[in-house]
Amino acid sequence: MIEELKNVWTEGTDEERKILELALQAIRQKRERKSAYLSGFLGLKGEFIDETKQSYRFELPLTVFMHNSGGAVHGGILATLIDSAMGSLINRSLPPEQYAVTTELKINYLRPGVGERLRAEATFLHRGNTLVVMEGTVYDERNKRVAHGTGSFIVLNRK
């Protein structure tokens, strides 16, 4: 495998080298932040939008990893961005002994994700003790909606 990696690095395309760089980024982020590898591949770095901690945002550069064969962001990546923004918001708002996972996700794709950057934002729609309903939207760099979704999350206790 080491030889194959060396070969891709020396003989591969710029795109292939970028994928290797993203893999290293994912490993670094997993080690430093204990996040999912996918977060590292996507370069997710989030923040609360307001001081009430009711909204959360990711801003990220588009990379070759995210593109479909048509050159736009793959629909699964857009769904992942919405789910990740909503999941980050709920999980960062829970006490340490609890966590939430997605139980339902619905996405509307509105326009192709193209350009240099995307922004995903999430907010609460309903916050029960065990069921939380949220919404999320992905915007392009012109502030146009690319995708919108809603999700339901169940709140669980850590063992």
From TrEMBL:
Catalytic activity: a medium-chain fatty acyl-CoA + H2O = a medium-chain fatty acid + CoA + H(+); a long-chain fatty acyl-CoA + H2O = a long-chain fatty acid + CoA + H(+); a fatty acyl-CoA + H2O = a fatty acid + CoA + H(+)
EC id: 3.1.2.20
Keyword Transport: no
Entries under SUPFAM superfamilies matching the protein: Thioesterase/thiol ester dehydrase-isomerase
InterPro entries, A to Z: HotDog_dom_sf, PAAI_dom, Thioestr_dom
Thioesterase domain span: 70-146
Organism superkingdom: Bacteria
Name by which UniProt lists this protein: Medium/long-chain acyl-CoA thioesterase YigI
Source species: Brevibacillus gelatini
